[in-house]
Amino acid sequence: LTVQVGKPGAAVNKTMYGLFFEDINFAADGGLYPELVKNKSFEISPNLLGWRALQSGDNLEIYAVRTEQPVSASSPHYLRVAARPGTGDEAGIENEGFRGMGIRQGAEYTLSFWARRGPGSGARGLTASLTAGKTKTLAQAQVTGLTGQWQKYAVVLRATDTEAKAKLKLVLDGPGAVDLDAISLFPKDTYNNRPNGLRPDLVQLLKDLQPGFLRFPGGCIVEGRTLAERYQWKKTIGDVDGREPLINLWNMGIRPRATPDYYQSFGLGFFEYFQLAEDIGAEPLPVLNVGMSCQSNSAELAPITGTSSASAAPAKGPNADAPPSFGTDDPSLDVFIQDALDLLEFANGPASSPWGARRVAMGHPKPFNLKYIGVGNEQWGQQYLERYEPFAKAVKAKYPGIAIVSSAGPRPDGDLFDKASKRLGELKAEYIDEHYYALPEWFREHADRYDNYPRTGPKIFAGEYAANGQHPWDNALSEAAFMTGLERNADVVGMAAYAPLFAHVNAWQWTPDLIWFDNLRAFGTPSYYVQQLFSLNKGTRVLPVALPGQAKNGTDNLFASAVADEPAGEVVIKLINYSASPRPVSLDLAGAKKLGKTGRAQTLASADLQAQNSLDEPRKVVPQASTFSLSGSKVSYTLAPYSFTVLRVKGT
Ligand code: AHR
């Protein structure tokens, strides 16, 4: 192979490799967002989802979900627990968590809740316990001093043991009724010690990818099954206890493993997404609903005409934390456009602007410096364009510097140059969001997908992709082969992200996924390490690579790409051997200056295409480091069977 080190090509975008986050597979509640209580505010339907009555077994009928004089108007339901004297049972409730609660020995958990004594109640307090199985108590604390008025109480529970499936039990200390709401059990240990922060091991796995961007909050959940169930970012900011939950689209039975108890609490909301992006050094990339429900192209469309009922000024004064009112459940396109403009103000506006003030009030005086927004997800054709055009015009008129990621349909083999894409070009969309979920062979066969893509017009945002064959290492290696094509075409491919990102081992709807976790542990799949090797070795400028005899990339199952890492003064070569035999290769680093005598190799390999990492064996397929020698500008290297190798050499 010849690497033209002396003829550097296009710059590689700093944001080239990033993350796609969607609340699917328990990625948010039960995953990244570490609240341990499921349905903490009794707002989900059925209102006692996740809860069990201690008195009289499972009979929750003796407990009533009420709405009179609630703590919060936006979260009106609360639970009245009424102890019945003489039953001999404990009067109280138990929460099951998200497939249990992950509790660590020595760690501290803040239990907080709102409570008030019922009329004439003898119960003045309660005992809170973390339990494991029928008999084990991991932590216990008393809360006393309940009054007839709503008050917030908090106590810290310190665990004496580790348990992946613990439960929280609250028992009244006397006869009578107590009203309870917003019952939260939150670990003190969060990433960067943030209040309402995120699960540290999962954030660390994200950070270790050095992602260029974070796309959020999805995926199909942006749109919702119906427009009424769409993601509304304004409902996800402000006081956590006042955020109104919503059924999760992935609750539905479209996948074999639908999880009927799946909802979005929005504890991880837009403020927290922006903060996460900042914490992991990624550009935030929110995707907004364009006025269409999930993959809809004829039903559930927001009418284009209509007056703007959408200028939802944020609440001021004592109700500043209440979600603002923002239109009806049957909104016109204006509402969606206004939401986008308000989001840009929330992210970047000064403290003196209404939405900028909301950001400042949440503890982030500096702007988030938002540069990109996505408009629609997996939508296409005339109905999309009719909505996209006024949407994009309004955004550009007020915020000309914002780059817009426009949508393309879910069509791995779709025509790149179809009418919609052409029109998006005419409308000067900066990026087109292409998605591909396909078999591994599709990825290997399409490593040239962008070789002939027009060099003018919108760039490509490969916003979701994954090889979805049966064998994890086959999938990962095929993705690596495809990614050499992204890298070779870095002049038109500006951003790319694997999807979906997370999956809970006991609560998933979609495979494959990049990172798996249970309530205590997590691991990256082989695809995770492919992403990491590309991201950490993305370099700054593409170097042309020629295969022997000028063969096409992928000929004889050999794939290659190369970049210069200018700040490091290094040449970086990526090689994929998709064959069962070792493959000797000779490399000529043509035109290179100041070459080192030795180089560093990182190899991700397994002769077994079925190889996978797991919670018990998280490092079965991970990169292995080694060194190699150069002879002048030449390198002789033997690629392992079924391997992805990154070679780094000093040189310019
Ligand atoms: O990543 C899972 C889903 O795949 C996304 O929600 C959607 O955009 C795509 O169809």
Structural notes for this entry:
Keywords: Glycoprotein, Hydrolase, Plasmid, Signal. Its EC number is 3.2.1.55. It holds the Pfam family CBM_4_9. This protein has about 650 residues and is α/β, with parallel strands linked by helices. It folds into three domains: about 1-10 and about 540-650, Golgi alpha-mannosidase II (Immunoglobulin-like, Sandwich), CATH 2.60.40.1180; about 15-30 and about 190-430 and about 500-535, TIM Barrel (Alpha-Beta Barrel), CATH 3.20.20; about 50-185, Jelly Rolls, CATH 2.60.120.260. It is built from nine helices and 34 strands. The strands form seven sheets. It has an eight-stranded parallel β-barrel, surrounded by four helices. Helix 6 links the parallel strand 19 (about 405) and strand 20 (about 430-440). Helix 3 (about 335-350) packs across helix 5. The longest helix is centred in the middle third of the chain and has 18 residues, at about 380-400. It is globular and about 90 Å long. The chain starts with a strand and ends with a strand. The model is unreliable at about 305-330 (pLDDT under 50). The site of alpha-L-arabinofuranose has 13 residues, from loops. Alpha-L-arabinofuranose binds near residues 464 and 510.
